[in-house]
Amino acid sequence: MSGWLTGRNVVALILIVIAVSASFLIYRLMHPTPEIEVKKEWISDVTPASGPGVPPPGIRGDGPWNHRLLIAISHDGLNWSKTYRILADQASVPDVIVDMNGYVRVYYVDYFNLGIVVAISKDLENWTYIKVKGINESWVDPSIVILPDGRFRLYASYMPLHGKQNKILSAISDDGIHFRVEPGIRYRGKESITDPDVIYADGKWVMFLDVLSLPEPKILMLTSEDGLAFKEKAEIHVEGQVPCLIRHGKGYRLYLHREDASSILTYYSEDLEKWGNMTAVLNSGQPGSLDEYGVADPAVAKLPNGTYIMVYKTWIREFKPKNP
Questions:
Q1: How far is Cα 271 from Cα 44, in angstroms, rounded to an integer?
Q2: 224: closest CA among 170, 150, 275?
Q3: What is the mean pLDDT of the chain?
């Protein structure tokens, strides 16, 4: 056997190996392996509350300690079916998006866990709850957007322990969980401002927010070229509070709640300035139902299958919001 590996045989063996390798390479190029979707796995690091909480010392009245988030589904964004699925208690002011992998993400103020939490699900039944990192509990009323490069930007109203709540801040993230605060202020109001909602529309960033002016609050529209410096564009003359703006058909649909929290309302526009007639799309529930005390803070997104999800706030224990 030792004499078999002559110089000529070695050369022949090398040529055979090269030929087989080349054939395999050509085959793989012509028959590529199908891409396999890598299933993302998140692990909850917080547990949502169950039932009402206790307000901070010296605080009376309503607050997120008495709020509950529920889910509704629609085939067209107008006709809604309540699931009565409790997403979280002691939770308020949600925002909902669908990320690039088709996961539903609901960002909301979590009183029980002292900060903003994101709930993540693919099927709307099984949820993972993760506390957002990099910001403190003074960041409230979250609005989340996905940038063209795939990163996440979180906008929020800044509510300090002392002083006026009149600033909108932002933070940036690669994964929508770990954020870095961006320098500067996105917008500073002359009066108290809350509940920003931001989308990209017609080549610019558009923000709707609540201005807590007297004798009654108003909705303000702002625009930005870069998503960082916003300027006032127009006052939106519609009924309702806590705006949620989405693309819908050839235009845009705005959702809000009535001041007495009896209904969630919607308006349609093709230019974000002229709004059509108001339609009530979700009403408070019957006595004994989970949302009998009112419906508020709508957050709406279109799902990958073409249907729509709404996450909305209700009250765990009875509370009478101020009437207009």
A1: 40
A2: 170
A3: 89
